[in-house]
Design brief:
Elements lengths: L21 E6 H4 L3 E2 L21 E2 L2 H6 L4 E6 L11 E5 L6 E7 L6 H19 L7 E7 L3 H17 E7 L10 E3 L7 H11 L4 E3 L9 H4 L8 E5 L21 H14 L1
Parallel strand pairs: 2-3, 6-7, 6-8, 8-11, 9-10
Antiparallel strand pairs: 1-4, 5-7, 9-11
Length: 272
C-alpha cells in the first residue's frame, strides 16, 4: 500500500548488515523467514549481521512484526559488493625501552553507544593522559580497527614483532554502561603482568575478573589465538550480552554515561 515498514534512513539497523541486494514481491510467510526481532524485548530493533554467509533481511521490533497483515510485500535492498580493503589506524607514544603495550578498540557497530562508542572514547582518554606524561617506560600502541577481521589483518602485519616485544595489552569494549566496577577478562596465558595486577585488584574489591573464553568477546580472541598467544586482556564495564539493550537500537547515548567513560579512563590509567 506504499507504506514503508523498514526504512534505513530512519534506523540504519533496519537492514541486516551486509545484506545482498534484493528487489522482489514476497508473501508474508516467505518474508517472515527474513525478518528479525526479539520477542523478549518487543520494543527494540535488533542488530543482525551476515558477514560470512550471503543473505538478506530486515530487522524490526517484535511489536511491529505482530502488526504485519497477510498479503504481498515489496522487499527492496539496494546494496552492492565490491573488492575493497581493511583499514586500521595506529598511533604510537614512544617510551624508553623496546617493550610495547597495546591499547585497542573497534569501529564497526552502527548506532550503538556502550557497545561501540565507549571503547574509542576511553581509548582517546587514555591517549591524552599517557601523552601528557613526561617520561614513559613502554611504547604505547593505540589501535582502532573493525572488530575481528581488523585485528586479524593487524596481526598479519605486526604479529611476529609483537610476539617479541609485547609486554601486555588491553582491548577496550562496553565501558560506558551503568555497572559500577570494571570487569577484566584475563589473557589466554592467565599469568601476564596485567593479569596478575587485575587479580590483585579484584582481591581488594576494586574490580572484577573473568576467565579467558574464546567463544565470546572481542579482539582479545585474535591476539590470544594459539598462533600468537599474546598477553592481551579485555576491559569492560557493562558487559556485552549481559544487558537487554546489547546489539539493539536501545544501546543509545542515554544508556551510556560520559561519567562512566571518565571513570573507566581514570581507573584504567591508574592500572597502566
Amino acid at each position: 500500500k506504499g507504506i514503508k515498514i523498514c526504512n534505513f534512513k530512519k534506523n540504519n539497523l533496519s537492514v541486516v548488515n551486509y545484506s545482498k541486494p534484493i528487489n522482489k514481491k514476497v508473501k508474508l510467510n516467505e518474508l517472515q523467514k527474513n525478518l528479525y526481532s526479539i520477542p523478549k524485548s518487543p520494543n527494540l530493533v535488533p542488530y543482525v549481521t551476515s558477514y560470512y554467509k550471503k543473505n538478506w533481511g530486515f530487522c524490526i521490533s517484535e511489536n511491529e512484526r505482530k502488526k504485519l497483515k497477510h498479503g504481498t510485500y515489496h522487499a527492496v535492498i539496494k546494496s552492492s559488493f565490491k573488492k575493497g580493503h581493511i583499514e586500521f589506524g595506529t598511533k604510537i607514544l614512544e617510551g624508553d625501552t623496546n617493550k610495547d603495550f597495546l591499547i585497542s578498540s573497534y569501529l564497526c557497530h552502527p548506532s550503538m553507544a556502550n557497545n561501540e562508542l565507549s571503547g574509542p572514547l576511553v581509548l582517546i582518554g587514555l591517549y591524552k593522559k599517557l601523552y601528557q606524561l613526561k617520561t614513559r617506560k613502554l611504547n604505547y600502541i593505540f589501535l582502532i580497527n573493525p572488530e575481528t577481521i581488523g585485528s586479524i589483518c593487524f596481526l598479519h602485519k605486526y604479529g611476529q614483532k609483537l610476539k617479541k616485544t609485547l609486554q601486555a595489552g588491553l582491548v577496550l569494549t562496553c565501558l560506558g554502561g551503568p555497572k559500577k566496577k570494571i570487569s577484566y577478562k584475563k589473557s589466554r596465558q592467565e599469568n601476564s603482568s596485567l593479569d596478575k595486577l587485575f587479580i590483585h585488584l579484584s582481591k581488594k574489591n576494586s574490580c572484577l575478573v573473568r576467565d579467558f573464553d574464546p567463544s565470546e568477546g572481542s579482539d582479545e580472541r585474535q591476539y590470544c589465538s594459539s598462533e600468537f598467544n599474546l598477553p592481551v586482556g579485555q576491559a569492560s564495564r557493562t558487559i556485552y550480552g549481559q544487558y537487554k539493550e546489547y546489539h539493539t537500537d536501545g544501546d543509545t547515548k542515554q544508556f551510556m554515561s560520559m561519567k562512566k567513560i571518565e571513570q573507566s579512563v581514570n581507573f584504567l590509567f591508574s592500572v597502566i
